[in-house]
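Need Phosphogluconate dehydratase's 3D structure for a figure. Predict it.
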Amino acid sequence: MAAHSSIEAITARIVERSKPHREAYIDRVRRAASRGPHRSTLSCGNLAHGFAVCSPAEKEALAGDVVPNLGIITAYNDMLSAHQPYETYPALIREAAREAGGIAQVAGGVPAMCDGVTQGQPGMELSLFSRDAIAMAAGIGLSHNMFDSSVYLGICDKIVPGLVIAALTFGHLPAVFVPAGPMTSGLPNDEKSRIRQLYAEGKVGRTELLEAESKSYHGPGTCTFYGTANSNQMLMEIMGFHLPGASFVNPGTPLRDALTREAAKRALAITALGNEFTPAGEMIDERSIVNGVVGLHATGGSTNHTLHLVAMARAAGILLTWQDISELSDTVPLLARVYPNGLADVNHFHAAGGMGFLIKQLLKTGMVHDDVRTVFGQGLEAYTVEAKLDEKGQICREKTPEVSGDPKVLAPIETPFQATGGLKMLAGNIGRSVIKISAVKPERHIIEAPAIVFHGQQELQDAFKRGDLNRDFIAVVRFQGPKANGMPELHRLTPPLGVLQDRGFKVALVTDGRMSGASGKVPAAIHMTPEASDGGPIARIQDGDMIRLDAVAGTLEVLVDAREFASRPLAEADLSENEFGMGRELFAPFRRSVGEADRGASVFA
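Structure prediction for Phosphogluconate dehydratase:
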């Protein structure tokens, strides 16, 4: 089916806007690809170093330049539950490569930090910048120029966007992303949230809180709520970087291992040495990017991707804007209810039909482009399947049923949970920001209340504990942008604001920081740009100023006389404590050079 008229129009607009950048990018990709397998350009000394640890047969094959060599970029570590399963993947991939007549080498490792560990800690100020550091680290691994194709082992928040930026920077190489899957279901996410809120109110202690958290995050695999990590997996499948049905299969299962082997063999099948050459830079185009945004809206995905998708697209010469994302949200219906946008977790989503059912529904009404290239070698229709093992232990793919396995979790396109995706851009005299309203009740889509200004989430928490916030207000938490302190996630704001909202007060948040995929029931205008440290109007707001947040009209205004507001001096903040410790001094060049949030908060653009 042809794409929906609105989807087609927005895609065409992105194509036109991007044309000079995209043409220059494609020219670079094709020139790099035209040089053929690049080991032929290496000196004997280069090659000797490159395959020193290989077997004699592998050395002979690599020297002959006719056997494909697969570069593995891995984000394995034991700190991230989602990444721990990757420990055994290189061995699986090497074996699969040998079976397919190729060779595989670990080209390099990239850093991978756990935002769950660093939430509210100094290390969180490195989190967003780790995305661009990951892209650079992957680039170092691939710079050895030994590879015909690449596979990327990564799942979590900044890791996948960083790896995608690297894959598109090395766009002359095919790239297959290999997931590890979510952990099995533990303590329900809504129960975990309830305990957190009780802890914020002082009604339970640290022992009870730690017990609840440990029952929720309990084993190998991705955290089961629908935050940035699982939004990443959705994106990789709907954009064609995953094999069909690969995203949400649990780790440590025969199917998971079979999918990993298949990914390695497929990465070798699509090199320039064969007949299905699929360089990542040409595979991903404006239609692929739009499909990713549509998937984000249809599933109520992470607000972090209003940063990451923009940065990922730019790596391929594609200029995606917040306005594009907002307008697509106005067209795309919400089809999934996964926590914090519902009670289910990603395992329930997968059991209800998962990505296959979701893509099938979106294709019905032309909400996604089918005529895209994918690593599977076919259009998006090929992804309307469920991956299984047959009686011989081989992967087979069955068409997804026409009916959802659980309509409370995954809805058909004819009866969506809501008509729009729930991610919107807000604009006004403070600047521009984004808001996720898919989990916010309609009566809270418009909040008008006086401002209370904070220069950090600890200040708000302290005020809450003193009992100073039992009233209607809009919290303005500023000097939290990328130039100020790396734009940390402000998850510690969620429990106190949620408590106050439950007490009947009208509350909302305005910040130049982030709230991520766990943004929930409290209206939150986030990623405000220009940020306070860049002279943004948010630095002129004072306690008591009336603010109107209108997620229906898409506006955010300080209700102060325009002349008076413009004449106010910009507030200043002492950020010296954010400059040192836990590696923050190493990222000073990033803070100085980072771009604005609506350009992806990237050091590359």
